[in-house]
Design brief:
The complex is a heterodimer. By secondary structure, chain A is mostly helical. Chain A is built from 14 helices and no strands. Chain B folds into two domains: 37 residues; 126 residues, Sandwich (Ctag/Cox11 (Pfam 04442)), CATH 2.60.370.10. Chain B is built from one helix and nine strands; from the N terminus they run αβββββββββ. The chains are: A mainly alpha, B alpha+beta. At the A-B interface, helix 5, helix 6 and helix 7 of A face helix 1 and strand 9 of B.
Amino acid sequence: MSAAATPALDHSDHDHHAGPSKGLMRWLVTTNHKDIGTLYLLFSLTMFFIGGAFALVIRAELFQPGLQIVNPHFFNQMTTLHALVMVFGAVMPAFVGLANWLLPMMIGAPDMALPRMNNWSFWIMPFAFTLLLSTLFTAGGGPAGGWTLYPPLVLQTGEAFPFVILAVHMLGVSSIMGAINVIATILNLRAPGMTLMKMPLFVWTWLITAFLLIAVMPVLAGAVTMLLTDKYFGTSFFNAGGGGDPVLFQHVFWFFGHPEVYIMILPAFGVISQIIPTFARKPLFGYASMVYATASIAFLSFIVWAHHMFTVGMPLAGELFFMYATMLIAVPTGVKVFNWVSTMWRGAMTFETPMLFAIAFVILFTIGGFSGLMLAIAPADFQYHDTYFVVAHFHYVLVPGSVFSLIAAAYYWLPKWTGHMYNETLGKIHFWLSVVGVNVLFFPQHFLGLAGMPRRIPDYALQFAEFNMISSVGAFLFGLSQLLFLYNVIQTIRGGAKATDQVWEGAHGLEWTLPSPPPYHTFTTAPEVK
Amino acid sequence: MQIQETTPINSVSVANRRLVKRLLLITVAMFGFGFAMVPIYDVLCDITGLNGKTGGRVAAVESGAVDETRTVTVEFVASLNVGAPWEFSPKVSRMQVHPGQYYQTHYLARNLTRHALVGQAIPSVAPGLAAQHFQKIECFCFSRQKFEPEEGREMPVVFRIDPNLSPDVHTVTLSYTFFKLDDAGG
């Protein structure tokens, strides 16, 4: 690869001005990875609060038995949209925002490989979500059959149905284009000397995640298209009366759905692998095994989908295969957890806010992994399936998992992005309130599930009342604590103590060689990587 | 002074274009794979007899020994899909059969409305592993059933249990769900 400066970029900004254009148009037409990263991150933060508000409606209704606040149909819309918004609007775009900001800086590239497609990838999202959220106001309401969109129930959605399908298609296109961009950037734009096995772990995890994205988002697109034609164009993909099968949808959906959850966690693993070595002042333990473990997890994620369907009536051989394959994923995941702990072993540790969230990630994500192992045991899953035990499991891996890693990443890199230090005291308060809140919110849900409380119900039997009340209290504690984070982020953007280039004493990597904040265009000449 | 630059043909943008073409190809292929899963699913269910599908195909009349030493209970179940306005029931609930022997039974269906209707019965056999050994020579589920207003009739099923049925299986249940076919074909 040539060492030429900016071959893939156009030089059509004729004025060669020092910075970006002013005003609203800047954000509309920008092709700059830093701007687009900021757009993704701010968008995902907004969606996080919207999805969070839906969750608080759910937890408010579940605070006590009985139907006090909302009617069941609206409750079901809340559960459906909470998940769709959090998965597709908060977690995934946030990781794409991190990718945009960090990948070029980490590999010594001037920008993403396809900057104009990058802009379009972002701008599809606000339109897609306006479309999706507008369905709450249509006749028949928004989608209410669960984010998993199972037919035949989902076909009972009213006028909102085509809007939901179109929104899902748009989001898929956005993700696919983003993934193509990430792969092209990482494979083609690394600075000379930055071999694959010298890349930061965050870059590796995004490379692998991007391959997962282009493999499975199109399958989701196919599945929802089949739903659309079943409803409006006389096909019978999922209608037994016409020779189809509703269970087919479950297979196709979860073939997408399982890699999807790894898409939501692998970049988190990358973030944690960047943060822990910094605050332990020790290199990441077992770099190569971390790369291989990530690749193994990604590969295995394609052959475990039916563990979401253990109760659907599969033959014994199928149940056994998916059970063993699912249990197998725990091995490379365990390797990663042990490596993070080993990184901290005999390190010189300090506990700034990013490190607090990273350590909480390791512990609480592992707890989520344990409940996942319990669910993997097929005969036991017959008891757990569609109960709150499943809800507890995936919220443990997604909230103190993915979301904590995103928060940790924000605290870690905000000083680099903005040039200002965030308020450390407020950060620590946010951390402790979040950790307490998230556990009060989700830990009791394990017991609710084991005691038999089903999922997706607006009202429940009286024996579930106490733990539901506790969980709801935790929900409001956790939810309101996030306002502290919002405040801290806004204040840091606007001002604060000046950040140095390196920011953190133990930070290593190309992004820490740049000024804080970095200039609009960085690495227009490739750096030397030894 | 503005410097006019021609876009250099250089390795990075060529590499980008080639890689992006390949990635787009993978994307399109995976989209096609999603749709390919539909026939793949049917083929796998057919071959393995999983999911209770008996294939809906006419089984050839086979001559073979009847296993008089063994008796299997066959139960008959009838269900209606949502919005299927029929009365639908098996004529007999269960039969004791010898594997290898042909038997005939009937299901009763009656259109409860004042309009002509078309229905489709979809069979399912439990346990799943017995499905491959349950052969239907004649079945009302092979074709769409048209009913005049308020018409009722008996619909025959001629079946045979293959003597290869696992000796662990003592009861086989044949279940039909009757669907109303509307203009949309669904």
